[in-house]
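User: Predict the complex.
Assistant: Input components as received:
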Amino acid sequence: MRIAIVYYSKTGNTKKVADLIAEGAKKIDNVDVKSMSIEEIDNEFLNEAKVVIFGSPTIAGTFAWQLKQWLDAAKNVSGKLGAVFATANYVGGGAEVAELSMIAEMLVKGMLVYSSGVAEGQPFIHYGAVCIKDGDDGQKERAKIFGERIARKAVELFN
Amino acid sequence: MRIAIVYYSKTGNTKKVADLIAEGAKKIDNVDVKSMSIEEIDNEFLNEAKVVIFGSPTIAGTFAWQLKQWLDAAKNVSGKLGAVFATANYVGGGAEVAELSMIAEMLVKGMLVYSSGVAEGQPFIHYGAVCIKDGDDGQKERAKIFGERIARKAVELFN
Amino acid sequence: MRIAIVYYSKTGNTKKVADLIAEGAKKIDNVDVKSMSIEEIDNEFLNEAKVVIFGSPTIAGTFAWQLKQWLDAAKNVSGKLGAVFATANYVGGGAEVAELSMIAEMLVKGMLVYSSGVAEGQPFIHYGAVCIKDGDDGQKERAKIFGERIARKAVELFN
Amino acid sequence: MRIAIVYYSKTGNTKKVADLIAEGAKKIDNVDVKSMSIEEIDNEFLNEAKVVIFGSPTIAGTFAWQLKQWLDAAKNVSGKLGAVFATANYVGGGAEVAELSMIAEMLVKGMLVYSSGVAEGQPFIHYGAVCIKDGDDGQKERAKIFGERIARKAVELFN
């Protein structure tokens, strides 16, 4: 089963977190994970993916317009499992609000949205992984765990 | 497969919409649907339900604290498919913001969230069914269609 | 005192509502109101405005990326009174969520945000004016009242 | 001019942050600041306050139902300057989403909402002060600065 991680990265931090999430997701058997910038989408992979994890930096308290522009036009995400992550420059810097805005759009696109929340024990991950810049050690570890959880949920739902 | 509709109703409007959603969900084969107020929860039914659809009136722009109090304490919703509906007194009266707040909490609780969005054609249902008071004819019809879509998605995912 | 209405319009509906809000605002003495698309900003007027009212169509459940792109780069809105309006294609179509996302960004930009809410009696206007397409008669009337209220509040605060 | 800080605290962390914000606000001349739990409201002080700063722990990704219950019933906040703060147990734990939900309700109540955002330079404070538990040193310092900024803005607007 294919899992696509689709991100927009401005400084490189969001790309780094995307790669951590990919690393976590790959721990699950039988998944094929690909992390891709919106500037270099592998449409064939994305079309066949059962899961899309979206990532954005937080820009003035919401997600990047570049990712919104891409998502507005996306035709191949409905029915897929969706999840989100965001980077921000500091605690309280809007990452969670950016995540919730992405989730709002993903629901409009007809995705199934999942974050694991508190349901899989510690660490709790409310709406999606959050890293301050590219993450301290704990945040990096949580990004990997997030990828693993989303992949496991996808296998549970779709295999 | 069991589908629980859990609502808080103050004036009776939200209860009426819950019943419309139940009516729609029952059109799908092999589902057992029960609509229940948070004041009269059938815990056995809820525990075994694969789907929980939450409904609230909009109170000062968010969902009712009574439903939040109930949801904070709920122990049996993680991993289930979740969906929402809301009533409000007028267009622009906060129903969608109330829905998104409920969705935020449902993600924290570990639910899979789905609304159908634009993915199943007209009518588009962004975050969940919305009725102004107990709904005009079009809104009532959309509430039924929403119930049917959530039930169909649940059968697709879990059967 | 100057009041700028800054909108992005795709179909023309949001422009029409901007003009209704301008019409309402002009009922207040001593205000100078100008409605402008982000494609034709009068920067001199905007710089001196004490109030900026932002408007957007609802696109996939959030506000238009074009307006976000503009707002991300805006340098002259901090400390001003801010308000919002949105158009959507149907009830439940995301206008309020779009408004709340705009408000989140306006707060980051350092604006004072006001909507009147329920504080000025009927009609209640939760986060900002909402019109379905270009508004039915009641929605059009509310858009005018919204403009009037924001202008009156601005005079109260800044004069 | 009176500034009320109204909070609900479950573990004591939110109370501690309320007190830090009060400490910061008191640095501004000619303000009288009082921090009060919703369980011990000084109604006379609150009625005459020009500013109310609301604080809540983050509970399952939104603000505490106890504070919502209180806010739903509040009759004396319209027209006042409003601001928010929240505590959460970890980064990404929902504090910002809780803040935005509070802000949504405050707008419905007819308050003017302000956070300072990026408008007053570093530290940027997006929607309101955020502390993880009762805050590390930097977060505590930001809470004080937040109080000071809100008080200064109030003096600017209302004196």
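Chain A has a mean pLDDT of 95.
Let me know if you want any component modeled separately.
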